Amino acid sequence: MNVANRKCIRGLSVKSMRAARSRNLIAILAIALTAVLFTSLFTVALSINDSFQQANFRQVGGWSHGGFKYLTLKQFEEIKNDPLIEQYGLRRFVGMPENAPFLKSHVEIGYSDINQAHWMYCDPVEGRLPTEDSKEAATDTRVLELLGVEPVLGNEFTMTFDVDGTEVTETFVLSGWWEYDEAIVANHVLIPHSRAQAIYDQVGIGSGIGNDGMTGSWNLDVMLGSSLHIKQDLSKILANHGYQTENSSAGDNYIPTGVNWGYTGSQLADNIDPITVVAIAGLLLIIIFTGYLIIYNVFQISVSNDIRFYGLLKTIGTTGRQIKRIIRQQALLLSLIGIPLGLLVGYGVGTRLTPVVLSRLNGVVQDTVSASPLIFIGSALFALVTVVISCRRPGRMAARVSPVEAVLYTEEMANKKTIRKAQSGASLPRMAWANLGRNRSKTAITVASLSLAVLLLNMTVTFINGFDMDKYLSKMAADFIVADAGYFQVGNMWSAERALPEEIITELEANPGIEAGGRVYGKSSPVEEFVTEDYYRAMYGAWNDQETLDNSVAVAQKNEAGLLADQVQLFGMERYALGKLQVLEGDLSKLHESGGRYVAAVYSDDDYGNPQMDSNWAKIGDTVTLRYVEEYEYYDPETGKILDPGNMLDDRPFRYRAKTYRDIDYEVAALITVPHSLSYRYYGADEFVMNDQTFIQDSGTSNIMYYACDVSDEGTADMETFLSDLTNEQMLQFDYESKSTYAAEFDSFRNMFLILGGVLSFIVGLVGVLNFLNAILTGILTRRREFAMLQSIGMTGNQLKTMLTWEGLYYALGAVTVSLLLSIAAGPLLSNVLASIFWFFTYRFTVLPILSIAPIFTVLGIAVPLMVYRTVSRQSIVERLRETE
Amino acid sequence: MSILKTHDLKKIYGTGENTVHALAGVNLQVETGEFMAIVGTSGSGKSTLLHMLGGLDRPTGGMVTVDGKDIFSLKDEELTIFRRRKIGFVFQNYNLVPVLNVYENIVLPIQLDGNRPDCAYVDSIIETLGLQSKLQNLPNNLSGGQQQRVAIARALAAKPAIVLADEPTGNLDSKTSQDVLGLLKVTSQKFSQTIVMITHNEEIAQLADRIVRIEDGLIVAR
């Protein structure tokens, strides 16, 4: 039967709420704190995701969802208005300068419409994009700097660049510029469409597409409705117009497409490692649990105090369901205030924490603080779910009460105990203990809530304590390492362009503090080794599927013995660096022989320093044949025709092989591992180390990858200043690493966890204290009459206070004991998990945080009951005795 | 010898128009070993009088002497201590401590005073009140009559100068009321215990040695 009674129930629920002010206040605070925890977690998580995405976009060079490449005008016009496309942008590539001053830079000249320019981060900070039919162009500060042109609007600059094989020199007027962003690979010079067309006409492309298949073509970049299935959407769009992107040789309806991996690559669940996912899930659970502990407790206590009221409601005909609804509505009403409050505060906390976390994540330069509505929706939802879960049991309890029992109900009926075997009489501590037993679930939950905070704090400190600086610094093999800035950046490959000039080393070595130092030469010319097919498959099998692997094996060049040619990585090390190597087997002394042909085979090791013995094929005494290639030739695998590398078709298969080369045999003298800080810092091929002279002689190159040195303790500060000045003021393209930068990095890493753990423990602690306050407060308020009675039979105020203080102390003692036991129990488990995640973690047992929290709890345990009692004792004994329930 | 004396005892609640003269100058004497009943209707001031006699509330004027001591010259804490040594209370709704068992409840006032109970005396009270088999029970497991008997035992245990009983049978049925009152009377005689009981029930009052009537805050007849 459905009766229109909702309004009546709502009225009841609102009115009975008014009677419980202090409970409401505590419940609102509890709900708010829960929401704070959720919101700050989501803010940090989503901000990290956003920052990753931004970093990806900048590496990609843009944030359009994807694009269609090398279209004709007709195809462009046809596709651009597809209903699946939300927005489109046009880019037409014109040319690239290849001579000084652009030797080391990737600069593109071309036309981009306003959308496309925006998506490529080409947003002028001063001026604007070029207007049509003018001589204008817009570019970034880096291009201007290389050209030696001041970033002043109206300045003219002239560039010589290659347009589909023809050299063109053009002069532009600066119409706008934007800041150079080192994370973005390509620098753009944007010119008007009319100017681009004029240049196409000039080199004879006209309205067609150049020989390179690219110049003069129409590129359509698009934003779709959603970033979730870009690839499928692009295919669907093409299919709508009778094109396909699957098979380049299947016909002339093939159109190449590009998907911005910044989107696919940064989906939180996809790309972030499982540990992070587990950590976030774990945190969510902890927060739900924290919230449950207090919200449940607040409602449980309030319901058991108001049980007579619910019994009365039952007596006059309120159903259990209606009573449940009353309680749920109260909880939701309180959430209405608590959750928004928590969202605001939580967002504030989250935005403060985000930079702390981001500063520790590699590859993210700029902080992005997400303001996604998802944060607020998600946090509010989680908080609401916590509230609803938390008030379910109290609701059931109120609904189940029998009208008759409710009148007789006193707190201790919650446990069925009727006998108490004590003959010695009651002492105050014992009475206090017995009082805690009245509502066991309240006591247990309050203690659990307090313990949780202490436990989290202890775990945080254990975690931080375990960060072993010595272990961490052991990875830094030299006091100082100096190299091109790119060498230190993750994701960069080292090449001759990043060589360290001899002058810098001369300048460096003039520093008096240097005790020892040495150059390490990097490989800058093509060198190959020959490996068995089995080894080849084992090595590449880890990253590639079977088909790709088969294909690579088929394509690979083979020598007379049937071995497969493969790229190899080489180090030419001076004596100093050789001394830093970890010898697994054999002897490095042979490498020092000048003129000798010895190498050390490099094995990789994991973070914990365990060498992986299958990471190289070469064993002591093996002969390694290295092929120094002087020239490659390209050929068509089907016809065998030699191809011109400067003029190859994009969609024709080709292969290449060494045309002129020298083969040199070396003997493996030692198996070694190279400390990470002295390595190439990326991995992709078998590596061998030889001495510097042999390397220079055999490879014919002498590009210095880095210079490493040890400095006396007194000289360290001077060296630090010298290098910091050199790399930050004088020669920005170079950078250095030192033990102290490693130490600083270590510290900031540790601080991140300290801050995060500290904030978490603090808020959870706040929740615990709030819970404790509520437990004490309600415990005292509901016993006002009982206290008056005790006083009337002769308990003095001081004795009463002593008893209450004991109650408070039992809570504190309980929390400390429980967290101590849990910490001791969880310690070994935690240490194993952490040590397997962080290689520089050394478990050190500590209960210091618990012990240092103990006095705080003791003070709280004493102060809170006393404070609450003061408010109660304002009423006279007679007033309290007369108070009817 | 008077163990309890009041002199012009006044209690005024409220101010101005709302002034209520709960006690309008009560003079009363109670002799040692006497079982006295104070009878009055609801609102007559009998409860207020009892609270004053027990030192639970302070009067607006006048004084109360217990065992020769002017109790309102004592500070609150002193008064509480005096109370637990000299006065035993029996309330209408028993007012036992729910977390303590029967025995613990009985000896609580003695222990609050930091003393060891006089075992022989306590045992004889327990026996007189027929509570031997219930000593380990918690109050919620007892009937109303049993709870009230525990309350009486508690009031007697510290050998107080006076036991003050506030409608001790107010929550009990008539049969149980008779039992409890009988026990009260017996203990009064057996332990020479001074008892002042207030009630609105004339019939119950008849059991007392002496009946005093109170109306509108004044003693009207002896």
UniProtKB/TrEMBL annotation, chain A:
Domain ABC3 transporter permease C-terminal intervals: 283-403, 759-875
Record flagged with keyword Membrane: yes
Localization terms from the record: Cell membrane
Cellular component per GO, a single term: plasma membrane
Membrane topology: Multi-pass membrane protein
GO molecular function: transmembrane transporter activity
Main localization, broad class: membrane
Domain of life: Bacteria
Residues that span the membrane, as ranges: 25-48, 275-299, 331-350, 370-391, 444-467, 752-781, 809-841, 847-872
UniProt entry keywords in alphabetical sequence: Cell membrane, Membrane, Transmembrane, Transmembrane helix
Family named by the database record: Belongs to the ABC-4 integral membrane protein family.
Name listed for the protein in its UniProt record: Putative ABC transport system permease protein
From TrEMBL, chain B:
Alphabetic keyword roster: ATP-binding, Nucleotide-binding, Transport
Organism for this UniProt entry: Desulforamulus aeronauticus DSM 10349
GO cellular component: membrane protein complex
Family recorded in the similarity comment: Belongs to the ABC transporter superfamily.
Domain ABC transporter: start-end pairs: 4-222
Name assigned to this protein: Putative ABC transport system ATP-binding protein
Highest taxon listed in the record's lineage: Bacteria
Molecular function via GO: ATP binding; ATP hydrolysis activity; transmembrane transporter activity
Pfam hit, one: ABC_tran
Family matches, as InterPro entries: AAA+_ATPase, ABC_transporter-like_ATP-bd, ABC_transporter-like_CS, MacB-like_ATP-bd, P-loop_NTPase
